[in-house]
User: What shape does this take?
Amino acid sequence: MVVLVLLLLFNSLAGLNALMDYRFTVGGLPINILDLLTFVGAGLALIARRRGENEQTHRFYVFILAIFFLSAFIGIVGAMSNGAILRWSATALRNLLTFPLVAMIAYQIPYSYGRIKVVFYVLLWTSIISAIVAMVFISHTTSEIAMNGTFNDFRYTKLGGDYGCSAAATLLFSLAAGVWAFPRVMTILLMIACVLGSLALPHRSEWLCSFATCAYALFFLNRKNFVRTFVVAAVASLLVGVAATVSISAISKATGHDYMGYVTQRALSFLPGQDLSPNTNRPWETRMPGIERELALWMQNPLLGRGFGIQEVDQLSHAGASYHHNVWTSSLAEAGPVELAAMLCLVFGLMVVGQKVVSAGVDQIYVLVGAMGSSMGVWGFLMSSTTLSLNWQCPAIIVASMLGLLLRVRSLQLAQLRSLDSDADFAYQSDSDQSDAQQWVEHEMNY
Assistant: This one.
């Protein structure tokens, strides 16, 4: 349990570059603190295999482990003959194995309701912390931009968690559905901080994914009270808009440059007919060369892909392409349709299972876990379609943790529902037996 908490905490702080810069070497390969915690936690998870009463291992959990380990095997086989050096292929393998190993930790360790509650709040707080880290990074970078930099310096940070997007969506769902993780005022303040954190870095893909994920949590997961939902959406939009305007003005003042103009240009770049400044490009212009190259690499071996590290090998002869920025084509290039299926099952599994947990109810914490998991599935799908995300270690850790916890919650939820059904059948049977006995006694007395 402690290992999982530390893993999530360090992962949320990964945006602070000093943390991830510390490594030690094993067999010529650099190992960071997240690698160490992942492997230790997976070992402990294999030992601590416990199940609750009437609980059955979720079949999707078994399937997701199997398909990811199969993908890893295919990627390793391909890496043996594609010319990749050990570090390139080992990094890709580490990133892929993060999913089954961390999902195993998050599924096996929280075997009771109390532990599930603790892990949920740790996940929620680590998402909140990653939003705060993003804003701290912005604050520290403003002085460098004021001296001799550009606003593009805001974009150069390491991926740490989800920058608060899943927490923002969960807290918005909490406000709309009336299912509380925190007191009302605290929920509103944390929601504003998380939305600002997810929008703080000038990443257009993150902007798009944050808006879509929050809208999904508000209008799809919560479909019972539309009036309250629209009120929450309107008030939240107003509060976030005011806070964002104040923040942008403060950054412009601190740097001495027009940050509002920079943000406006990047937002307008989504519209094909808009004239942009020379330094601003369309979102798809930097993505398409890498996507085309990864598809070309996949077509060289459509069944199995070209193995781990193939993008780095290909980059030696195609320096202009930005690889790994579309998870689907990156997966095809590495391990073919099997890895693509694994990644798609991951995000759609989060969406579907999370929505089922929300619909079934049973417990307030379960509903919040379902809302956070389903929202993270939407975030993961959109981010995977637009930029480097789930195929990197830090985002993979938070998504895999959420998947493992969500599947454990669903297993316990189904066990509780089965228990309620069996109790209801027993009560019905008892009433039927009593009624038959009473009829027999009356018949004998009349006879």
